[in-house]
Amino acid sequence: MQKPKIEKTVRVKRTPAKGLKARPSPLVVFLVGIAKTVKKIEKEHLFILLAGIVLFLVKGVFGFLSAENLAGHDLIGNYTFAWLMNQFMKNLSFFGWSKLWFAGFPAFIFYSPLFFIVVNLLHFLSFGAISIMFSYKIVILASLLVLPNIVFFSAKKMGFEKQERLFITLLSFAFLFLFGKNNMVSQTLNFGLVAQMFAMNFFILFLGYMFTKEYKKTGLFLGLTILSHIFAGAVAVVCLLMYTLLDREYYKNMKVFLIGLLLASPWLFLVLKYIGFVNTYFNPGKSLLEIPIIFFIFMSFSLVKFKEKRVKYLWVLFAFLAIISTLSISTLGIYNIKIQYDRLFPYMLFLVCVLSGQGLLIFSDLLHNNFNLKLDR
């Protein structure tokens, strides 16, 4: 009697043809990329973001998302610009002539367009599920919420130690919520200076990378700052010039300037082409007396480290902006240069918060050491 034949199942391992590699699906690549990014995030960043979310909830800032009537000065006007950008982008353009307001006006030729482009990108990428209005609100709130994380990251690039970075970040929350009507939340949500707030994040990143050798990224953030807000871009160029005079790295900083200029050139070309139609007006700067004296007291402690390049630079930059702002209030002739000098104040406040953060750490260390000395006695 013959034994029954048992057929063996042989598993064949499929291998890609020679010269070809097996490629994971785009979804897998995306998820792995997110996992790697989250893993690289410092725990301090997560803590700062959580602290920001809690503070925004306590202060009721997230209520802005459900607000039906945007009535804060330029807030509704900037929403109109977001709607105009939507019309232009549908025609594959970022600039054009608006038929609103009597005979119309050239939209986004003299006003930096990047904020409004980002608002509409979020709208288009959601296939219209996110309305322009809600997208507008999301970008505004995100600009405010991420600022402390941006400050922490940039302080690291500047070379500040971990404790210094944490104290500086703590003071960045003051930048958002203190100083009365001059704080960033009020300036953004009550006065509608949304593009300025959006640009502030790129400006701070630019300032941080300026202290590194990474000239390409520094130039990138310079260009993004210019494209986000023309005044922020002008302040950034002044910052670069003053830094060049301090560190004398002319070749590196020239490359930074050229990269930033090249990135912003499509828009800057239009500005220069029609510069003859620009009509500026004068606004005096704000007084330093609007800053609580306690911040100047903490700032003074940072002078202990004045020999450090970053501290010296930040002090010199603050002094320069403060002098220009003060001169615009006086009658010494600077009013002949017609710009809005009050727009310098947020940058002065930011520098005050950075230097106060470092000074606060030095002050707390002095108190701690003095207390320990008394205990030893």
User: How many helices does DSSP assign?
Assistant: 15
Poorly predicted sequence stretches spanning 5 or more consecutive residues: none
User: What general outline do the C-alpha atoms trace?
Assistant: globular
Helix and strand succession?
HHHEEHHHHHHHHHHHH
Proportion in helices: 55-70%
Radius of gyration (Å): 26 Å
Tell me the β content.
under 5%
* Strand order in the sheet with the most strands: 1-2
Question: How far do the termini sit from each other?
Answer: 105 Å
Reported for the largest beta sheet, the result is:
2 strands, antiparallel
The averaged pLDDT comes out at 85
Oligomeric state of the chains present here:
single chain
Count of strand segments: 2
Structural class: mainly alpha
Descriptive account of the structure:
The protein has 15 helices and 2 strands. It has a domain of 92 residues. It has 377 residues and is mostly helical. A two-stranded antiparallel ribbon has the order 1-2.
Topology:
Layout lengths: L25 H15 L2 H17 L15 H16 L5 E3 L6 E3 L6 H12 L6 H14 L1 H12 L3 H16 L6 H6 L4 H16 L5 H14 L1 H18 L2 H24 L19 H9 L7 H21 L15 H32 L1
Antiparallel strand pairs: 1-2
